[in-house]
# Entry
Amino acid sequence: MNKLHYTLHIEGLVQGVGFRPFVYRLAKEMDLCGNVSNRTDGVYIDLNASSEELDHFMHRLAVEKPEVAFIYKMNVSKPEEQVHYDSFEIMHSLDATSHITQVSPDIAVCEDCLRDIQTQQHRRRYPFVNCTNCGPRFSIVKALPYDRKNTTMQSFAMCNRCDHEYHNVSDRRFHAQPTACNSCGPTYYINSPGDFSYTEILDRFSAEINAGNLVAVRGVGGYHLVCDATNSKAVAKLRALKQRDSKPFAVLFSSIEAAKAYTYIDKEEEALLSSWRRPIVLLKQKRVLAKGVNDGLATLGCMLPSQPIHFHWFDQLNTKVLVMTSGNCHSEPIYIAPHTAEENLASHVSLFIHHNRDIQNRVDDSVVAFAAKKPVVYRRSRGYVPEPLFTPKSMDGIVAFGAELCNTFAVGKANQLIVSQHIGDLKNWDTFAFYQESLSRFTELFHITPRVLACDMHPEYLSSKFALEYALAKDLPLIHVQHHHAHAAACMLEHKLDEEVLAIILDGVGYGTDDTSWGGEILRCDYSKFTRLAHLTPISLPGGDVASHEPWRMAVAYMHELLPQAQLPESFVTRVGEKRIGMLRKMIDQRINSPRSSGAGRLFDAVSSLISLCDINTYQAEAAIKLEHIADKSVQDLYEIDTEHPLDATLLLQGVLTDIEEGVSPSVIAMKFHNTLAEMIFQMTCFQLEKEQLHKVVLSGGCFQNKLLLELLVNKYDNAQILSYFPEQYPCNDGAISIGQAAIVASLYQH
# Structure
């Protein structure tokens, strides 16, 4: 058989995920000779093979690759100098220097490792078991290349048995950097390392949970607060600690079977729940848990065990479901250090379970839901970060600082954009410090040499102020990007759209080019420019930012400006009070601290308050979330629409008022509201597509976390054969603003 020398260059997430050992075993199995190596720009395979063998080898590479690996591009070339190989080898990383930029996300424990802790004597019930296919990655890495000496495992010297596995190319732990066992690896403790055996620690945990108490446990990316999800008193204690009146908690189920007892789960949701990423998945609730877990909502945020200790908990607990939420106090980043956790949580927590492996990079749990038949990421962190976004544009040297809420930042390396873990809301000083620290670590870790910066146009965002300081300190150009243009560009980049599109951007607030607040926008845009074609009617925000926290203010504002002669519902007046309503009307008339905004989120707030659902937001978008969750999906009616001005909400509000007066159920009103808003946007979409001669629609902005609204719109577009795109791999909320900022700057610099 005529064998030639071929070189395969594979780009993607193929370093640090067991790809080279996989290639080695595959080549050996197929009796092929050559070598495989890591380089700065991916994995290279030199191979002696016939054309048929090459095709088969490439097919098996793509189909059988490690589950965590991702192949973005595979190129084949035939070197001029043909080399004949006598065996197949794994080569030392070529140029394994500061240029290798790939780090795998943290990976949930695999089935093989779970078997090992039952069958391998040196790993029996070892809670930090891992292999090439699973275990901590991003959370422990301090520098690149990703070698043990550059992780927080550096202080744990491998025993002879682990060292043998680590250097054995046929072993599953070949070059698995966190390899460890009971003899040489990290351990759990309560007061100090070695104070209790692992079995005793599990017994203490079970006793506290069964007694209805709170436990803080150090996990992969930070501390979790844990309690029995079937015990209302325990959940109430947790709410008191978190100063969290009603925001729902996520829960950890012992198994998929336990989750099915409380939620409806289809095949796709089950696959995502059980995947190596192990995110929180929002599922339709079937059965109610303890009071206080997710009161008033129709969905439940669910997780399955991702670490061995989680499985061990359920082996001896009375319950099959635990509340498991981030270990922090209100608005602070998740705690990662034992002393910080104890200082802040000790007054409420009955037991702390620490471990002695440092957390280098904090990562909260990721949140995903299924919408319009696709998994969509709402919060991107553990299990996803720092997986890069491969782009057709050069992103090299771009640093994008993101927005104020749900912040992430992004850094560019060649044609990769590396987006940070979920940072949170920058209004809290500790979170802002976490943001600054993480940005510094990313630029250092991935060897980014900044050459151009991007930030939001809003002058008061801390991210924008920090970007300005950074630009001045490093003498770098800084581009201010309009918020809603960034939303659109992020979605376009994810879907590789490089043309003008019609963008429907619905969110709470974004600084506009006219110095007013935008948020219900129809844009014509590409990466380098945008035109504002239409928008929701601007309404006053009496009290400024306070209006976004107190939906009753928006109810008064909408009614006062769109229906000044109409009477507010009697129940609303009784709750709020004539005096406060009158005060707000004067503020609006006299333009006292009442900036105007076209934000779609405020329309949701107004309707939610009018129907007595939510007058005060105790967490972000509470009024809108409750409005979505009570909607009666069987209702198909909608309110009248002004076909000449489809985005005018006057007739919608009039319909809501009439229904309230006639005693129509809030669940029916909520559904009619969603039906009407979707139809208003659809009518404007059709008008603008024809007028502007555009063919594709992009949907983004935080309001599209509303699954009901998104699906109503997407169904309308599908039925009308309109191509529509919405964020899937990255959040539609401000968590993707940094991506859009980077995309826009990359386009401007290309031109």
The first strand starts at residue 4 and ends at 13. The chain has five domains: 4-90, 102-186, 188-355, 386-494+732-750, 539-725. DSSP finds 23 helices and 29 strands in the chain.
